[in-house]
Design goal:
Chain lengths: ~325, ~325, ~325
Amino acid sequence: MITLEKLAQQFQLTLRGDPGLVITGVATLRHATNNQLSFFANPKYRGELRESRAGAVLIKAGDTPDCIGAQLITENPYADFARIAYLFERVEPMIAGIHPSAVIHPSARVDPTAQVGPFVSIGPRTVVGPSVLIGPHCVIGEDCSVEANGRLIANVNLVKRVQLGRRVIVHPGAVIGADGFGLAPNASGWIKIPQLGGVIIGDDCEIGANTTIDCGALDNTVLENDVRLDNQIQIGHNVHVGAHTAMAGQVAVAGSTRIGARCLIGGGAGIVGHIELCDGTTIGARALVTHSILQPGEYASGTPLMDNRAWRKNAVRFKQLDDLFRRLQSLENKTKP
Amino acid sequence: MITLEKLAQQFQLTLRGDPGLVITGVATLRHATNNQLSFFANPKYRGELRESRAGAVLIKAGDTPDCIGAQLITENPYADFARIAYLFERVEPMIAGIHPSAVIHPSARVDPTAQVGPFVSIGPRTVVGPSVLIGPHCVIGEDCSVEANGRLIANVNLVKRVQLGRRVIVHPGAVIGADGFGLAPNASGWIKIPQLGGVIIGDDCEIGANTTIDCGALDNTVLENDVRLDNQIQIGHNVHVGAHTAMAGQVAVAGSTRIGARCLIGGGAGIVGHIELCDGTTIGARALVTHSILQPGEYASGTPLMDNRAWRKNAVRFKQLDDLFRRLQSLENKTKP
Amino acid sequence: MITLEKLAQQFQLTLRGDPGLVITGVATLRHATNNQLSFFANPKYRGELRESRAGAVLIKAGDTPDCIGAQLITENPYADFARIAYLFERVEPMIAGIHPSAVIHPSARVDPTAQVGPFVSIGPRTVVGPSVLIGPHCVIGEDCSVEANGRLIANVNLVKRVQLGRRVIVHPGAVIGADGFGLAPNASGWIKIPQLGGVIIGDDCEIGANTTIDCGALDNTVLENDVRLDNQIQIGHNVHVGAHTAMAGQVAVAGSTRIGARCLIGGGAGIVGHIELCDGTTIGARALVTHSILQPGEYASGTPLMDNRAWRKNAVRFKQLDDLFRRLQSLENKTKP
């Protein structure tokens, strides 16, 4: 519970409306009630803004005429909403110390301010820094480090030689540092290439549930600072991801590819191995990137959704496209004057 | 072991053949032996029906001439096969009680008829209902509930604020209630949007192995009753899935999308955020849905599989399609009378 | 640490250069220093070979003129590199015995030479063979077997009726033997088909992190010897994969499909159910295979990556392809002499 006046002070916002109004929570424009705070950032929701019963709305100066409730005026309503919403998050309090069920290798070092939950196992030579949360069921192997304020929510797997920077968040089911997929063919079948590298993850990165990031074959797999990965992403060995890049769910990046800074990779996109994407590249959902990208911009592949009957009719023609071009060429030649 | 006569009585089927024949198991038409029961539902397998050595076959009345063994006649052979097959499933017996290794928060409540396996951890204020199975290694966080007869097979993660209805089955590695992927950009990088909602899953749903269902940002993520999700599916925050909808493996649904009832989503299909699919929509394997669907029916995208040489030749022409249309238009104009 | 002379002897290679040179590790051509061994297999890296400071390079006889350091000459530099690299892998030593925290069902049998880590649970009638490593947090259900020298790294789930051959490696988060996705529709919704089969995995297979392999419905799901699966792959019930086949990350194979021997399936490819791929089939990344393949060779689907503006312009034309063919046909008819 906080008054609008205090919110405006704490977050340096301009207030229009009753400074004494008590805000008890945050909600969408559609569902907010008269003691809740909402935000208006996407013009698509202007109708909902006009009808919202929110007690107050975070909003840009130019949009205030459409808002009937109190307003907290800001240049970036969504970012300020993010900051304010934390006031209303119910978080279990940190309790420093190691749960009695945890199994810690004698050569591992756990900072006394860290919290280590039930059924955690920590391997040889691993270091857990100050104020780190290692949630229940995390499995940390040998030679890993988790720096200050890292949060491994639960059931996170750091397999071996994984370094997490400060404030990194890892969600359940993520597997970081498993062997990369390296095989050499020989006469009798496959020989597994030993994977001798590690994984280095910078400060403020977030790794989604069931995402996998393989250790490098010889060098390391690297995520620079503030990389954000959604769920079920696959990062192959020796991939390098630049700072502030974000990837939506189910993206896959094959081995040794280098992705620049501030890239946005759409859900389910695939990026083949041994290529480079320059800084500021945006890739559409489910696109397949088969060659390096040297110019920042948006890229896509695939075909539009159609009803099945239309799709079948057109898709079969795709097989004849080259033939079609030849026939057109031939017609053009015929009709030349 | 059960006689055909008893099977016919118990499942209200018409029997043609020896009522005293003892059935000891179920099998496919191809592999069934003369004390096993099989079924015939897919006309594609008529050849195998004719040659089957099955002791008895579940079959529609119209198909009996092709069947040499005993017959159990029904309108829906596949559904009745499903029901009968349970007689032959070897299931470990439920043993009510909490394994001594489990760690249960003092504020959690576990029904005395529930079974809680080894290395389970259950967090604050979580409620486990009657006859629920919480298999080994499940990690349940705060404020969750699992209603009567739910079955979390093993290593299931309910992160926080997850409600499972009655008879819900969750397979290993599934992560339900992890933070949704919410980021606000600001000058220095990304700000994480706190994810304050939960996940509500209706009765009779089934959630596949390594599937992830994120908690809502402000409101909840919702699956209505009898939703069936295969393995490795990703459901983003605030998605709503209607009753009886089924999704095959590796489907991804982005945030705030609303999927109707009785939809069938093919394997690996992707559905972008903030759209609606009406009741009765069918989406083909690996299709990408980029806009709302208002008419029930079948939808698809993509191109047909080709041998690589033909594919390269035709795919390159896709880049020239618009140009091609212009050239055709120009030819058409020329040849107008 | 090993001299070049000893390396040449042990791996039967021809040495050109100082036999007394001590090799302390392995590295890429770019990063190797003068006591490290590298390899040259991909002609793309010839520039790096010429500039490499590697103490020695594994190389084919024909490529030696481009190499300034010592050379270990071989027909298959990559395969020999794989073998030699194991000398430099730091592996935690096996320690036979069962960690006191592990929970083993009284009817399970664990070979005394096996290592069973912390928080492992092993179910009824399961058998663990000699020199097997069951890493921390593995959950093994009923009626499974792990043959000699198998390695379950950590947090591996063998749900039920799973047989692993000799030297099988399974990475964290993999789920093998969960129920296949079998549903029969009836008037009131879905009926779950009980999944009564198991999973049989041959010798020398490797299963990637967070990969899922479902148990069969009636018969078994089968991987023959030396099948190699990368991360996040989904193998449906009753799939059969031939020997030496390798699949890259995020491949999905739907139920009852039969894949031949020595196939290569590119990352993210999808293969529908109830079809066959012959031996020696290669499938491109993200291709969708919708019908059986009878001829070995390379297959692909999809469209090339384009910048977004060009893509939109061309993709919309895909919807008019069939119409285009008709218009072309009509023009051709008109211009016939």
